[in-house]
């Protein structure tokens, strides 16, 4: 199982659900019992709790992450073998989970077993992420690192809109998809999180964590060393621009909210 740190999840989800229209099809106001599968630190769980009076359950396979989640019930378990009886929730949902599974259809089938009404998935197309930056080398380097990662990763991290195909294969009906762009902007005055992210760029830490995946995708160790050296130089330039309050960056991640109904 691919593991995620709480810091990474909190940083990448910041501000994601400031606008919530894309969740309209989940009809949160009328739900009674919701399950968030692969909840991580509970970023989507929190939205469910704010937008409904439902009992909200959260499940993850990572015991460390589950400890960060505020929910009515926290469950440790596997998305493809949920520890719940059939039809006990009226919404089973996930966010950025299917892209991490080798058999996403098996998970959606399991969601449909546990739901008496709706199943939903909020999944990105990571191949279509865009970055704009005042540091000229940042967008091409981010694209190079992303392409190498996608080449090496063993699940479909670009699933996005294709989640609808998984839903139909799992037997769900009335399947609909709404696109939602998560835009994260960094500009002065910089918050603590932006300063920490810049410092991490300058060490190339996250690239180092991804090195096994980059190697699996065919990136030679020489090519990796070159990429990391350029990445760290770019990170130092980001830090330098921040000292002058000159640094600005906008990252856009396209997400797709897919909703389907369990047939009667
Ligand atoms: C990219 S994170 C998304 C977390 C959260 N939903 C969010 O959007 O911030 C993927 C999550 O799925 C969990 N996960 C991965 N495989 C799983 C599985 N088979 N069953 C349950 N959880 C799983 C990971 O531990 C991680 O918390």
Characteristic key phrases:
alpha/beta, Rossmann fold, SAM-dependent_MTases_sf, binds S-adenosylmethionine, 264 residues, methyltransferase
Give the CA-based shape: globular
Identify every distinct bound molecule in the structure, by name, code or SMILES: S-adenosylmethionine
If classified by CATH, what would the architecture of the domain at 6-126 and 156-183 and 252-261 be?
Answer: 3-Layer(aba) Sandwich
Q: Using the coordinates above, name the CATH class of the domain at 6-126 and 156-183 and 252-261.
A: Alpha Beta
Major sheet attributes? 8 strands, mixed
Task: Find the CATH topology of the domain at 6-126 and 156-183 and 252-261.
Answer: Rossmann fold
Measured as a percent range, the helix fraction is 25-40%
Alpha-beta content class = alpha/beta
What's the mean pLDDT score?
95
Number of strands: 8
CATH superfamily of the domain at 6-126 and 156-183 and 252-261: Vaccinia Virus protein VP39
Q: Please write the string of helix (H) and strand (E) elements.
A: HEHEHEEHEEHHEHHHHE
Poorly predicted runs are none
End-to-end Cα distance: 34 Å
Structure summary:
With 264 residues, the chain is α/β, with parallel strands linked by helices. 38% of the residues lie in helices and 24% in strands. It is globular, with a radius of gyration of 19 Å.
Describe the protein's topology:
Elements (H helix, E strand, L loop, with lengths): L5 H8 L19 E5 L5 H9 L3 E6 L2 H4 L6 E4 L12 E7 L8 H11 E10 L5 E4 L4 H15 L10 H7 L3 E14 L5 H12 L1 H5 L1 H6 L4 H23 L5 E13 L3
Parallel strand pairs: 1-2, 1-4, 2-3, 4-5
Antiparallel strand pairs: 5-8, 6-8, 7-8
Bound molecules: S-adenosylmethionine (SAM).
The site of S-adenosylmethionine has 20 residues, from helix 1 and helix 2.
């Amino acid at each position: 199982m691919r593991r995620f740190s709480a810091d990474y999840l909190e940083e990448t989800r910041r501000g994601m659900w400031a606008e919530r229209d894309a969740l309209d099809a989940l009809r949160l106001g009328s739900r009674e019992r919701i399950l968030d599968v692969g909840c991580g630190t509970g970023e989507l769980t929190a939205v469910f709790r704010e937008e409904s009076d439902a009992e909200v359950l959260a499940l993850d396979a990572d015991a460390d992450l589950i400890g960060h989640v505020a929910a009515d019930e926290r469950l440790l378990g596997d998305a493809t073998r949920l520890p719940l009886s059939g039809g006990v929730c009226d919404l089973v949902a996930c966010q950025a989970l299917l892209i991490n599974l080798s058999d996403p259809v098996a998970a959606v089938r399991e969601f449909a077993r546990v739901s008496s009404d709706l199943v939903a998935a909020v999944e990105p197309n990571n191949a279509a992420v865009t970055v704009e930056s005042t540091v000229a080398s940042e967008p091409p380097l981010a694209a190079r690192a992303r392409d190498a990662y996608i080449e090496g990763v063993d699940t479909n991290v670009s699933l996005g809109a294709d989640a609808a195909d998984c839903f139909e294969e799992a037997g769900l009906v009335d399947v609909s998809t709404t696109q939602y762009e998560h835009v994260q902007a960094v500009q002065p005055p910089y918050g603590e999180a932006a300063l920490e992210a810049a410092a991490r760029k300058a060490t190339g830490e996250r690239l180092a964590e991804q090195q096994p995946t980059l190697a699996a995708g065919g990136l030679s160790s020489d090519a990796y060393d070159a990429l990391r050296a350029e990445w760290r130089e770019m990170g130092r330039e980001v830090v330098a621009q921040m000292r002058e309050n000159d640094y600005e960056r906008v990252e856009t991640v396209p997400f797709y909210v897919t909703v389907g109904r369990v047939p009667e």
